[in-house]
Amino acid sequence: MxxxxxxxxxxxxxxxxxxxxxxxxxxxxxxxxxxTCFAVCAIxxxxxxxxxxxxxxxxxxxxxxxxxxGRMEDGESIEEALKRExxxxxxxxxxxxxxxxxxxxxxxxxxxxxxxxxxxxSLKTPKEANADSLQAQWYDRESLPKNIRKSDILTLIDAGxxxxxxPWCSELQPVNLPCDVVCQRLLLAFTSSDANLxxxxxxxxxxxxxxDSQLPVVASVEAQTLMVTAKKLVKDCMPSVYEQxxxxxxxILGVQHSGRAPGQTDGVCLNTLVLLEYKExxxxxSVNSLPKTENDGFRWHEVxxxxxxxxxxxxxxxxxxxxxxxx
Length: 327
Description:
Elements: H1 3-11, E1 37-44, E2 51-55, E3 65-66, E4 69-71, H2 78-90, E5 92-104, E6 109-121, E7 135-139, H3 152-165, E8 182-192, E9 204-210, E10 217-219, H4 228-237, E11 245-257, E12 268-278, E13 298-302, H5 306-318, E14 324-326
Parallel strand pairs: 1-6, 5-14, 8-12
Antiparallel strand pairs: 1-4, 2-3, 2-7, 5-6, 8-9, 8-10, 9-13, 11-12
InterPro entries: Nudix_hydrolase, NUDIX_hydrolase-like_dom_sf, NUDIX_hydrolase_CS, NUDIX_hydrolase_dom
Keywords: Hydrolase
GO molecular function: 8-oxo-dGDP phosphatase activity; 8-oxo-GDP phosphatase activity
């Protein structure tokens, strides 16, 4: 597959098999529910624009309210975990509309938040209370229960409302592809605005690629947020100018996971859009100067395909990607 074909697939949210790591900081292979927590969370609205909430039965937070959420089990896909958690805690059946946000505390704790919709079943009543939850109810955003377990769900509810009103990116579903570590395939771009745009010339864009012309796949760094992954690669490739560069993770273009072989394929690959810029223009360096790559394993590739260049720039400028929240 050519580099252009690879980039096109990544931009569309499609998956690509992880065959090698181009940079592999020390990381143990994750094992679900032992040393790694992958979780799901559902944001579901009814016809009145009320959001679904469940009342917790956990001994640590009895009676508090939260969105339907929980940890993935061995062998589950992300979508299967979502449907199971909503059924267990809220009593209804659902289907995902789109991934809405990824929340993370590093490669050992990642939660996939979905905008979803009810497809059947009925809300759990207090008479049906069990260890999963006490009951489920619909709530207006302005009249949420006061005893919410954690305020982190408020940003998710607000994101769900905004997406329903005006979607900022295309609907995105996880791709069923296995991976044995937590890693990121990086679409790492540098743009140059030195072209004379008034004369019809267009902004130029380069992608950092491996020596065999592949998008770099980098293992996430233990005990640090996922946002460090791209910084690790840039620091390794461009140590001389690293302090002068700003490495901005724009968001996620795609999610790849398959836990069908517990203990072996418990990882996840996040296809991630990253923008590399100079922090400020200095006398010695122009903001349009392509940072020199000092690692023989990587090089810059200029995107000359006009439609591909336009699509990448639109993703960057419009922010039409899946956002990541580091908790």
